[in-house]
Amino acid sequence: MTVFLLCAFVHTYIWPVFQVLRSRLSYASLRVHWISNEGELAVNRKVWVLLGFLLNGGLLLWLGLRQSAVGMLLFAGVSFVLGYVVYGRFIARQLGLGEHDPTPAHTQADGVDYVAAPMPIVLGHHFASIAGAAPIIGPVTAAQYGWAPVLVWIILGGIFMGAVHDLTSMVASLRHKGRSIGEIIEEYLGHTGKMFFLMFAWAALILIIAVFTILVAQTFTKEPAAGSASLLLLVLAVFFGLSVYRWNVNFVVASVVGVVLVFGSLVLGLMWPLDFASWSAVKSFAASVKWKPEDMAMAIWTVFLMIYIFLASVMPVHILLQPRDYLNSFLLYAMIALGLLGVLVVQPTIQIPAHAQFSVEGIGLMFPMLFVTVACGAISGFHALVSSGTSSKQLDRESDALPVAYGGMLIECMLAVLSLITAIMLTQPQYAAYFKSGGGGPVTLFAQNLGTLMAAIGLPRDAAISFTALTVSAFALTSLDTATRLARFLFEELFTPRHDPAFRHEHPESSESISSPSSSASVPKTSTMTALLTNRYVSTTLTVALGGALAFSGQWKTLWPLFGAANQLLASLALLTVTVWLAHKKVSNFFTLIPTIFMYAVTQTALANIVYTNLRAQKYFLAGIAVLLIGLSLFLGYLFVKDQFFSKKLVPA
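Given the sequence above, the corresponding structure tokens read:
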């Protein structure tokens, strides 16, 4: 009833006021383009039909299906399908996506980073890169607030914010020669803004590299089968890349054989686990330096991972990174499909209340911390770096951006809903036990309960749990190697000369169409130092060295609590940048402006809360970093306001 009354209030009072304001606002006074022509109005009606479905579906869920995980799953699935068909295509039309323009994978082709690939391969790479452990950890942890706010945020956030964020970031990169969000900031908000953003994003990726290196090394040490299976997958990925791109093997045939071998690698990994801690040589050396065998095994895996991510960053993308992500994506597809089928068969009852508590100890108030805790399942700034960093350089056609970016995000949202179900099917004491010391945490909760669901369809429970754990570890490794390559790109852009037309537009204020790529020009000579710092081997070496040093030092544990807010700050800054770009091109941008305002408010509130909390705890270092992040976001927000409201360049004569 509350939802119904809220809808009635919005329809009766808020909507008419909005229509009046919309008719009075002009582009000269506020650089927001609303929908105008009849073709777009037809699409707009479909969007409101989608909104109506979500609101009415939410009401039905609240009244009749709130104790049914199957009802929750079906409602979420239908919502995501409608979101893609209606809102996704609507955004694509606003962006002018089409097949008539060559993509950077063709115009900038270099055989290393810019390599055109079929849509399924790029989708596999993109999905595997963005869907690490975060869409599992976030919803499972946030379930302490109750399932209702988490579900609403996943569905609405995914359709109207996260997927839009990923798609617009990718398209903006496509229209700027495959360059990152930082380059677009320079073009429209200035060089200083670009430098601040690139340094911030690169530092965040260094932190990700350090944390994921340790997490993957710990997983391989505790689950030796995951390590051996991952090594086999690396070898398989190289052969797949060579077979498709060098030996001209039919793509479908290679995919079928590759997928069969992927699951064969898992079986072999379980049969022959690579347990370094049990090797006599490792035990002897560990004893000589007074280490535990497990610590020595973890150090071995850490060094191996650093070597691997270096190779994954500098090697041609179609030889290792791209095929590995593509093949790995089938593991996640299989895990999601088996999990969903298990929910339909078991039909678990929801045990945790819809609204449990507004404040959670160790996390904070629901606003803003819910929107920071559940990131990758709804919206995540890391996705913008992937969309504009690696994926945009591999698209064969512009139209592929819709299934890759928007569709890939909604698949991840479905994984987030499945993760939420594995948590709320437990009683509160059972759920709390996983978060106590030695309880295993959210990943263990997800693996064990998803294994229980899979066991209902005939799979052995222990094998299902092992399969889930192996899949999650494989995607943590995927996020690690992608983060390294992204950090390399950002580092190179950081030291690219401003005048270099190979990396930015020569005429930023030209009246080119939104669907027209910028013209290229000859590359001027650069200094020896610039050439050195933009060399992919040098930039990767510095990136891996810093990430590895932070991993071995353990200092990442101090900084990690800030990462959630910093990640969402990346999302708000990416949306802000895309909003400015669309405004300069005089294209509708309300679908990015509204998420920009919301995410900006969330991150500012979250960072202010972090400052207050750490000052009370006398953790001045963390509080100081949070203040710096607030300063960065305020500075870029100032540039945004200045550009949108006070710049005479955009006001029509």
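Strands lie at 359-360, 364-365. Try to locate this feature in the token string yourself.
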